[in-house]
From TrEMBL:
One of its GO terms (biological process) is positive regulation of mitotic metaphase/anaphase transition. InterPro entries: TPR-like_helical_dom_sf, TPR_rpt. Keywords: Cell cycle, Cell division, Mitosis, Repeat, TPR repeat, Ubl conjugation pathway. The keyword Transmembrane does not apply. The gene is CDC16. Residues 580-604 are annotated as: Disordered. Residues 582-592 have a biased composition (Polar residues). TPR repeats lie at residues 445-478, 479-512. This is Cell division cycle 16. GO terms for cellular component: anaphase-promoting complex; cytoplasm. It comes from Bos mutus grunniens (Wild yak).
Length: 604
């Protein structure tokens, strides 16, 4: 009986995905060879591929092969992991090897005439050990031990630098900070383990790691010249554009990838985030439904559906239901946790939003977005100290992000540091202009308004008016912008213009208390009844238009203890709507997933 021919037939059926046929012949070969260890190993492989995990583990463990061979130990643990028996899998990987293992193997080899098992099964010891470290990392991930999971993935990559799965888990889940990524790349023995492909691996790893770098910094070495059209390389470039806030270019690149490979796994999260940023609801609706139909067990499918419901507004319960399903399928899926936090944040449920953001922050150590959103929530609850701390952490990860710069400026404004606030706002504006030459996206309208507010504080009234007018170009029907312009005109003594702007503001929003109060004051000043005004209100209006522009706080607000910031509402950079913190509600929308947010500074 020629067993080698039957063994080749087993491999042939495995290659052709005919697992039942492979299992049938693997079982017969194992019997004919009197349970040769390598034949039992391939029998267990066939059982594993037919989802008979416990049978596969039993086939190995009942014969003690998991204690004699690393490959069998790995496969037995993998069977328990596939059956979601994580602790049993970890116990198998961590069990102590018998002291007489090598002696026993030597005797077994002498008796049966076998070669070293690792070479006979066409697997190197370093490759098997790398696989064991990779599996151990996945088990720790499933047990919510991110620290040990990260360590295991690093070890897997050091043992086998070609083990892309370990590298991908580290990077796609944002498990490393920028410094840790740099240290990992330097620690890899590329020159030792892959002399010929060293430049190729270094390029591929660096290209995927440096997502916060400028897209223009991507340089493809001459030796790997054909890779510029590779879809993974294009996705990495698109991700750089995304994190540099150039969403139009990112969308252009991801669309090319999606056209060539409609369900490219690495491209989908970036593409979904870009669709949200560019407000392409119809396209996201179509994509999310196709994903749910084709990949119902993939968390990105339900993440896309949740993003759609968040995007259309007033569907937060629906969004939470689908995002919760995404996190159930994969507890470590950070983008779904961020979007889940947004669903609470748009309803001003700050505690629940922060709980979701903190979960995302633990999962995505190398991403600045969770820190940004946590800081935003602290800012909205008037805790500027903690807000500043988290914005600082976000800035350390993404120092070029204009959203983060804007938020740091907001905190400086709240602390009365007008010059510092102006610097951060101007820096953010420069970054945005560098992306698209001109500020044309309506989500940047609050930044322009906030520049107007801080210039007013610094008595740069002409500049303040210019910024507010630029904001009106982006969102023409914004009552707060009209009232801000009216307020500046009143400070400059242009009461006729002030009256016009306050009238326009009230036409857009009748319940604007600040505009109502200021309109009354400006009309009185315009008709020249300044003496009656001063007598009745006991406020020196000339102090407002003269040396101290902030001396004219109106009494209606002072009696209630309400600041003008609260009267006008916080500005929300995500959609240009307002957060009415004083009333505990919001008309605005929180952008999704990897999408950012902001608050504004209002009048003061």
């Amino acid at each position: 009986m020629n067993l080698e021919r039957l063994r080749k037939r087993v491999r042939q059926y495995l290659d052709q995905q005919q697992y039942q046929s492979a299992l049938f012949w693997a079982d017969k070969v194992a019997s004919l060879s009197h349970e040769d260890p390598r034949d039992i190993y391939w029998l267990a492989q066939c059982l594993y591929l037919t989802a008979q995990y416990h049978r596969a583990a039993h086939a190995l463990r009942s014969r003690k092969l998991d204690k004699l061979y690393e490959a069998c130990r790995y496969l037995a643990a993998r069977c328990h992991f596939a059956a979601k028996e994580h602790q049993q899998a970890l116990d198998i990987l961590d069990m102590e090897e018998p002291i007489n293992k090598r002696l026993f193997e030597k005797c077994l080899k002498d008796e049966s005439g076998l070669k070293d098992p690792s070479s006979d099964w066409e697997m190197s010891q370093s490759s098997i050990k790398s696989s064991i470290c990779l599996l151990r990392g996945k088990i720790y991930d499933a047990l919510d031990n991110r620290t040990l999971a990260t360590y295991s993935y690093k070890e897997a990559l050091k043992l086998d630098v070609y083990c892309f799965e370990a590298f991908d888990l580290l990077t796609s889940h944002h498990m490393l900070t920028a410094q840790e990524e740099k240290e990992l790349l330097e620690s890899l023995p590329l020159s030792k383990l892959c002399t010929e492909e060293q430049e190729l691996l270094r390029f591929l790893f660096e290209n995927k790691l440096k997502k916060y770098n400028k897209p223009s910094e991507t340089v493809i070495p001459a030796s790997v010249d054909g890779l510029q059209e590779n879809l993974d390389v294009v996705v990495s470039l698109a991700e750089r554009h995304y994190y540099n806030c150039d969403f139009k270019m990112c969308y252009k690149l991801t669309s090319v990838v999606m056209e060539k490979d409609p369900f490219h796994a690495n491209c989908l999260p970036v593409h979904i985030g870009t669709l949200v940023e560019l407000n392409k609801a119809n396209e996201l609706f179509y994509l999310s439904h196709k994903l749910v139909d084709l990949y119902p067990s993939n968390p990105v499918s339900w993440f896309a559906v949740g993003c759609y419901y968040l995007m259309v507004g007033h569907k937060n319960e629906h969004a939470r239901r689908y995002l919760s399903k995404a996190t159930t399928l994969e507890k470590t899926y950070g983008p779904a946790w961020i979007a889940y936090g947004h669903s609470f944040a748009v309803e001003s449920e700050h505690d629940q939003a922060m709980a979701a953001y903190f979960t995302a922050a633990q999962l995505m150590k190398g991403c600045h977005l969770p820190m940004l959103y946590i800081g935003l929530e602290y800012g909205l609850t008037n805790n500027s100290k903690l807000a500043e701390r988290f914005f600082g952490q976000a800035l350390s990860i993404a120092p070029e992000d204009p959203f983060v710069m804007h938020e740091v400026g907001v905190v400086a404004f709240q602390n009365g540091e007008w010059k510092t606030a102006e610097k951060w706002f101007l820096d953010a504006l420069e970054k945005i202009k560098a992306i698209g030459n001109e500020v044309t996206v309506d989500k940047w309208e609050p930044l322009l308004n906030n520049l107007g507010h801080v210039c007013r504080k610094l008595k740069k009234y002409a500049e303040a008016l210019d910024y507010h007018r630029q904001a009106l170009v982006l969102i023409p029907q914004n009552a707060s912008t009209y009232s801000a312009i009216g307020y500046i005109h009143s400070l400059m003594g242009n009461f006729e213009n002030a009256v016009d702007y306050f009238h326009t503001a009230l036409g857009l929003r009748r319940d604007d208390t600040f505009s109502v109060t200021m309109l009354g004051h400006c009309i009185e000043m315009y008709i020249g009844d300044s003496e009656a005004y001063i007598a009745s209100h006991k406020v020196s209006w000339y102090g407002v238009v003269g040396k101290d522009p902030d001396a004219g706080k109106n009494l209606a607000q002072e009696e209630k203890g309400v600041t003008e910031d609260e009267m006008l509402g916080w500005r929300h950079l995500l959609s240009g709507h307002e957060f009415e913190e004083t009333q505990g509600n919001s008309d605005g929308q929180r952008s999704l997933a990897s999408v950012r947010g902001s608050q504004g500074v209002g009048h003061d």
